[in-house]
């Protein structure tokens, strides 16, 4: 893993990058949760997502949005964070021009950003949403984008969060032709505080990505 700075629209973005030893390995970008709630690229869930992709042979990057820890600028709006995401996607693609697959994975608010980025990037071949923030419910940006993805959630999350996940699955299918596979991690809540819960989330994500990435039917 390499610690680095990526030039962004509001200054440099602090990132950690792992380059696979496999030529033309698939790529992944990991998006952390809401920076206003102290989420960052080195929190437990973001790191577990990063390791899941790293450990199955991806070249993968995680980063802090503007204004978070060592990233320059002030904490941004959704539109500004989306610019940072686009910058990092471009960065990893430009350094891996032989790779023809890229995945996005996000936690909490980062899961919402995954969906928005996917609508703008037709090259995205797979995605994972980890405990998406149930307080964000604007689906206006969705358009037909046939694909498959994973929704990971703690079995002990609130009833509202679980109901939102069901609703999100239905909306994605209806408005965007996207099929979500849902996995609920036994005994976990949205923070995956117990080591066993975090390990199970990591294992479930790694297994899903490994299986789907090997499937030639992925768009």
Automatic annotation (TrEMBL):
It comes from the Bacteria. Residues 29-199 form the Xaa-Pro dipeptidyl-peptidase-like domain. SUPFAM superfamilies: alpha/beta-Hydrolases. Keywords: Hydrolase. Pfam families: Peptidase_S15. GO terms for molecular function: hydrolase activity. Gene3D superfamilies: alpha/beta hydrolase (3.40.50.1820). This is Alpha/beta fold hydrolase. It comes from Candidatus Enterousia excrementavium.
């Amino acid at each position: 893993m390499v610690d680095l700075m990526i030039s962004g629209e509001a200054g440099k973005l602090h990132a950690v990058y792992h380059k696979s030893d496999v030529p033309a390995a698939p790529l992944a970008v990991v998006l952390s949760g809401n920076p206003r709630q102290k989420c960052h690229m080195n929190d437990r869930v973001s790191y577990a997502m990063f390791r899941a992709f790293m450990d199955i042979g991806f070249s993968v990057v995680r980063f802090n949005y503007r204004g978070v820890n060592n990233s320059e600028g002030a904490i941004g709006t959704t539109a500004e964070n989306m610019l940072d995401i686009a910058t990092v996607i471009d960065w990893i693609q430009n350094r891996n021009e032989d790779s023809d697959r890229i995945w996005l994975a996000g936690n909490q608010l980062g899961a919402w950003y995954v969906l928005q980025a996917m609508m703008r990037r037709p090259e995205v071949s797979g995605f994972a949403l980890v405990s998406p923030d149930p307080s964000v419910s604007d689906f206006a940006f969705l358009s037909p984008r046939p694909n498959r993805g994973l929704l990971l959630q703690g079995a002990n999350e609130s009833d509202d969060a679980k109901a939102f996940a069901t609703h999100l699955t239905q909306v994605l299918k209806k408005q965007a032709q996207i099929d979500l596979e849902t996995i609920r991690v036994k005994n976990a809540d949205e923070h995956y505080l117990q080591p066993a819960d975090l390990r199970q989330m990591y294992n479930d994500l790694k297994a899903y990505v490994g299986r789907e990435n090997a499937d030639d039917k992925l768009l």
